[in-house]
Specification:
Layout (H helix, E strand, L loop, with lengths): L5 E4 L6 H12 L2 E4 H9 L3 H8 L1 H16 L4 E4 L8 H10 L1 E6 L2 H11 L11 H11 L8 E4 L5 H15 L1
Parallel strand pairs: 1-3, 1-4, 2-3, 4-5
Helix pairs in contact: 1-8, 2-4, 3-4, 4-5
The structure holds adenosine-5'-triphosphate (ATP), (3R,4S,5R)-3,4,5-trihydroxycyclohex-1-ENE-1-carboxylic acid (SKM) and magnesium ion.
The site of (3R,4S,5R)-3,4,5-trihydroxycyclohex-1-ENE-1-carboxylic acid has 9 residues, from loops.
Length: about 170
């Protein structure tokens, strides 16, 4: 296994923060969650940043934090679900790191909605069919990656073990 950083991408709620933290722990690597980094910088929750400062400022900060962290090696980074909307972020991650897409079917994602609905401002005020549209539209920005892991019907431990196995072989 090389010292490349591992970067988790995928739609909000698929488990990037949960799985990223567990993978980092098992590999003995530092874990950084980009949403949490931004929250620390602003001393505010993501929903408050969106409301009080605006999504544009959040997206700019997302880009600068990810770009500077991608210059370092040996870490595990979990991005926010919208980070790959920015081409610059896609480029810097794909060229510097091993990018893992966590995939989940919309049917399974729906079952998890109650866990995330209050803390994801992008979902605020959307109907289920609008969320479904966003879910499928967003898959386009996740199309480039180095490994895709389907997480339907698997608990975080199983997904973590599968990823550890894969990165030991491929990274
Ligand atoms: N494999 C899994 N099975 C069941 N629940 C899970 C699984 N992975 C994550 N969860 C739960 O789903 C919720 C969302 O997970 P998490 O916060 O890790 O998603 P995320 O991809 O980081 O989302 P975001 O893009 O918004 O940051 C959490 O409550 C978490 O406990
Ligand atoms: O998918 C998105 O656009 C987002 C996902 C979250 O991780 C946060 O980064 C924020 O709520 C925006
Ligand atoms: Mg997260």
């Amino acid at each position: 296994m090389t010292n490349k950083s591992i970067v988790f991408i995928g739609f909000m709620g698929v488990g990037k923060t949960t799985i990223g933290r567990m993978v980092a722990e098992k590999l003995g690597r530092e874990f950084i969650d980009i949403d949490e980094e931004i929250e620390k910088e602003y001393a505010m929750k993501v929903s408050d940043i969106f409301e009080k400062i605006g999504e544009m400022a959040f997206r700019d900060k997302e880009k600068s934090v990810i770009t500077s962290l991608c210059e370092q090696k040996g870490k595990v980074l979990s991005l926010g679900g919208g980070a790959f909307l920015q081409e610059d972020i896609r480029k810097v991650c794909l060229s510097s790191s091993f990018v893992i897409l966590l995939d989940l079917s919309f049917d399974k994602w729906k079952e998890r909605l109650n866990l995330i609905i209050d803390s994801r401002p992008v979902l605020k005020g959307k109907s289920l069919s609008e969320m479904e549209e966003l879910f499928y539209k967003r898959q386009e920005v996740y199309a480039k990656h180095h490994l895709k892991v389907n997480t339907d019907d698997q608990d975080p431990e199983e997904i973590t073990d599968l990823i550890i196995h894969a990165v030991n072989e491929k990274v």
